[in-house]
Structure formats: C-alpha cells, structure tokens
Design brief:
By secondary structure, the protein is mainly alpha-helical. It has two domains: 69 residues, no CATH class; 103 residues. Helices cover 40% and strands 9% of the residues. The strands form three sheets. It has a two-stranded antiparallel sheet. The protein has a two-stranded antiparallel ribbon with strand order 3-4. A two-stranded antiparallel ribbon has the order 5-6. The two termini are 15 Å apart.
Length: 174
C-alpha cells in the first residue's frame, strides 16, 4: 500500500474467474476503478451488506448494495456522451469504436500504464474496427489509422479518466 497525500493506492490479488465474472457485471460506461470506489464507499456508509454462509457448504451471498440514483440503464447517457466526444471516421461503426475505446481503458485499469505499442498489441486484435492488425516486431512503432483516427483522439477527448503522461510516453488511469 502506498500513500500519496490524501489518497491511497492499494493493490490486491483475486482469483481470475471471480474477477472476470464480477468485471462482466460492471456497465461498460463505468470504469472498474470507479466501481470499486463505489463499493468501498457503500461499505463505509453501511449501504453494503454481506450475508455470511449458514454452514461450510453454503456459499456466501453476493453483496447487496442499496439502489443508487446514478446507476445507469443498459444504454446510458455516458455512452452517448462518449460517442458525441469522438469524431468517428466515416464508415466505422460508432458503437464498435466506443467499445474499442472502453477496451483500452479496461486494459489500462487491469495492467497499469501502457505505451501506444502495448495498447495496440493487447487491444487491437480483439477490436480491429476493420483495420489490419499489425505484426509488430520489437522496436517497431505503430503509426496506423486505428490509433491515429479513433483511439488516440478518443482517449484525449472522450474519456476523462485516462491521461497521457508525456514524461513516460504512456497512458494510464490515475
């Protein structure tokens, strides 16, 4: 655990299956960082209860969180805002572009700061948006339209929770 002024950074380990199952329940327009923070605040405020198992064979009940007014429906205004902030190239599916951008944010949340090359290598194969996925050799720099026309402008203009660190030449979710 590292402390920096008024914030604390804490790293934890969790079973991969449990993490992936929980992650799938988080709305795409909400960052995992924000969702975890909401759970911590709900627990602090007494709005989160966990029912202990009745015996060794009964699994614990999933946490119940009090309903929140800010919980988005399936398609929220946050999705629309992200799409409005993105300048989608003609002929590209806006929702697919938004999903690719969210996948980049998810990658940064899960893996920490990443360079353009690391993002392209990790995210583009699952979200090519009709562009050819490059086979980057060590030292190669990616200059493709997937990055220039969709991802980089989206990170800069549409997602408030991703920042570029010029001194590190990488992107991160603070």
């Amino acid at each position: 655990m590292a402390k920096n002024r008024d914030t604390i950074t804490y790293q934890f380990e969790i079973d991969a299956d449990t993490w992936n199952e929980w992650k799938a329940t988080v709305p795409r327009e909400k960052s995992l960082h924000d969702r975890i923070r909401e759970y911590i605040e709900a627990d602090r405020d007494g709005r989160l209860t966990i029912t202990p198992p009745t015996d060794d064979t009964t699994p614990a009940k999933e946490p119940d969180e009090a309903p929140r007014d800010d919980t988005p429906a399936s398609s929220s205004s946050a999705d629309v805002d992200v799409l409005d902030a993105m300048d989608i190239p003609q002929g590209k599916d806006p929702e697919a572009c938004r999903d690719a951008l969210y996948a980049v944010r998810d990658y940064l949340e899960e893996h920490g700061p990443a360079s353009r090359r690391e993002i392209v290598t990790a995210v583009m194969p699952d979200h090519p948006l009709g562009y050819d996925v490059p086979d980057l050799e060590p030292g190669d720099r990616f200059r493709g339209a997937w990055w220039r026309r969709i991802i980089q402008p989206g990170l800069r203009d549409a997602l408030d929770d991703v920042e570029y660190r010029e001194n590190h030449s990488d992107y991160r979710v603070p």
